[in-house]
Amino acid sequence: MNLVQQLINGIVLGHGYALIAVGWTVLLGVARLVNFGHGQIYMLAAFVTWWAVAGLGLPYPVAILAAMLAGVLIGLLMQAAMLRLTFAQDLVSIMIVTLGFGHMMRGIAGLVFGGHPQVLETPLSYIDFEIAGAWVTAQDLAVVLVGIAAFALLHFGLERGTLGRTARMVAEDPKLAQLAGIDVKRVYFAVFAFEGAAVALAAAMVAPRTPILTSIGFEEVIVTFVVVVLGGIGSVAGSYAAGLGLGIFTALFGGFVSPAYATTAAFGVLIVVLVLRPSGLAMRAGGR
Amino acid sequence: MSTPILEARELRVTYGGHVALDIPHLALAPGELVGVVGANGAGKSTLVNALLGWSRGAPAVSGSVRLAGEEIGALPPHARVARGLALVPEGGAVFMRLSVAENLAAATPPAGAAGRAHDEAQIEALFPRLRERRHHMASALSGGERQMLAIARALRLGPSALLLDEPSIGLAPRLVTDVLRAVRGLVDQHLSVLLVEQNVRAAIAVVDRLILLERGRILAQGPVAAMRDDPRILEAYLGEAAA
Ligand SMILES: Nc1ncnc2c1ncn2[C@@H]1O[C@H](COP(=O)(O)OP(=O)(O)OP(=O)(O)O)[C@@H](O)[C@H]1O
Ligand SMILES: [Mg+2]
After folding, report:
1. Which of A40, A97, A176, B210 could staple A102 via S-S, CB 3.0–4.6 A?
2. What's phi and psi for B207, nearest 5 deg?
3. Does the residue A179 lie in any domain?
4. Nearest residue on chain B to A172, judged by CA atoms?
5. Does residue A45 fall inside a structural domain?
């Protein structure tokens, strides 16, 4: 196997991972919430994209927007159901409710989209480039660019300005934020809408690389865990770096050692890092 | 008498089955400073929190709360803040991970309150310490400085009525006087304040009226001149035998 090719695969994979995890970064970092239906929103959004392109004949960019809209609606629906739990910061119940939502989504997807694997073909998958003897498709390039754009926007949105300050206030003390005049409920809805939209965007970008089945989504949740935890919970830059690092690690391990054990190895790395540096890899002033 | 700026009727708060507060009527006149005193667990915090519809716990609150005549008793806390009611909760709550400047900027005056809101210059004139510490994280402030920051943040919201829950707690005796004097000064500029205070002696020096709470009920209330000599106040809080 060619090293440059594996590195490029890793970079593409890593941006995909980071993109998949971006919603959770905000969810956990801003609102101290979790969503174990994350993987199934990914799965549903992949199907919606496929259906919009293959079934309705819509252009790919419109299909991406349709998937994101579906993600937003699912996110809002989930948060509406859990609002009381959210206010009570009852993480265990939230975990169980979101897991339940995930299973329901899988059932619904089975009913609507059937059990056959589908392949999403986008116009970008047919365009190839050669870089230093390695091949990339325009779809790969788009994953990288969208990943960078999503993280840059989020970084600037959250690190400065009113939005970021509001987010940090709600993250630190939602009750106190109410006294500063913040409608915390709206923030929670916005965060879940973002989570839905972000994972749907990731699905629409990344899913064309693999067959789409109702059973996908589990691996995406695992990847999200690793990225968010390694990155230092809630750190935008940390998640980006962790996603990229995990992608490159997986590609190199898969290319030169064994693809079958790449995920296992990634978990090994996660455990080692957590034992040595419980707050994740990211260094942060006043860190958490 | 003019319309009270803040008025509560049949205000009841229960935790589980336990009645923590039961107040048939309470009013705060415009430009008035009313002190609320009572033993630990008397329901002082429960009272000011209930007026804002806010709590760290999950109490059941019922009753009517009016702000300048408008019923706000069913509104969520942020909506009451938007209408001009502000609360500085027990323990001088500030955002530890935000700087002093950010804590102040975090409280944006709601539309309509802009005229009443303290601007940065006024805040700094009131609490010069905060200017020196502008760029520090709130977690690096002393307890007293945090208390000042919490009050300053509430003033940034431009409230027409302010609820203060033990602003002097943890402060050096001199600072207690300073903070309470500052509160008095605000009231003289027509802010209306309900002040919960453990330090009865210090409270008596600044308030217009005093309310004595016991087990969630109003045991006595009246102008400070009369309450000062009330035997229940004298014995329990000023450590003097009733004359
Ligand atoms: N979260 C809660 N859950 C259950 N009971 C509570 C809760 N908060 C307060 N109480 C009860 O309500 C009553 C009034 O409490 P509150 O905090 O209002 O007293 P306080 O007068 O402010 O006392 P302190 O001077 O100690 O601040 C007490 O009996 C207290 O035990
Ligand atoms: Mg109290």
Report:
1. A40
2. -80, 160
3. yes
4. B95
5. yes
Domains along chain B with CATH numbers = 31-58+74-237 (3.40.50.300)
Closest residue to atom 24 of ligand 1, CA basis: B40
Q: Which amino acid is at B72?
A: I
Measured CA to CA in angstroms, residue A155 lies from A149, A210, A234 at distances of: 10, 29, 11
* Residue of B45, B52, B56, B78 to mutate, interface with A, max A Cβ within 10 Å: B78
| β partners of residue B40 | none
Query: Where is A54: in which H helix or E strand?
Result: none
Query: Do the Cβ atoms of B95 and A176 come within 8 Å?
Result: yes
Least Cα separation, residue A188 to chain B (angstroms):
14
In a domain, A75, yes or no: yes
Q: Which residues pair with B8 in a beta bridge?
A: B26, B65
Ligand 1 contacts (CB < 6 A) are B 15, 20, 38, 40-46, 57, 90, 198
Distance between Cα B103 and ligand 2 center (Å): 23
Torsion angles phi and psi, residue A73, rounded to 5: -65, -45
Our count of domains for chain A comes to 1
Tokens 């609507």 -> residue? A112
Q: What is the pTM of this model?
A: 0.86
Inter-chain touch B106–A173, beta carbons under 8 Å: no
Per-residue pLDDT of chain A (288 residues; tens, 9 = 90+): 588 899 999 999 999 999 999 999 998 887 788 999 999 999 999 999 999 999 999 999 999 999 999 999 999 999 999 988 888 888 899 999 999 999 999 999 999 998 889 999 888 888 988 888 888 999 999 999 999 999 999 988 887 778 888 888 888 899 999 999 999 999 999 999 999 999 999 999 999 888 999 999 988 888 898 898 888 877 889 999 999 999 999 999 988 888 888 888 888 887 888 788 766 665 443 333
B227 neighbors B234 (Cβ within 8 angstroms): no
Nearest to A175 among B56, B97, B98 (CB): B56
Q: Judging by DSSP bridges, how do beta strands B161-165 and B85-88 pair with one another? A: parallel
Rounded CA separation A49/A262 (Å):
28
The pairing of strands B33-38 and B209-214 is parallel
Q: Which two tokens stand for residue A207?
A: 């899913």
Q: State how far the Cα of B94 lies from the Cα of B105, in Å rounded to an integer.
A: 12
In a domain, A157, yes or no: yes
The residue type found at B27 is: A
Instruction: Give the ligand 1 atom nearest the CA of B18.
Output: 5
| Residue B161 one-letter amino acid | A
Q: Which domain holds residue A182?
A: 18-215
How many CA atoms does the CB half-sphere of A90 hold within 13 Å? 12
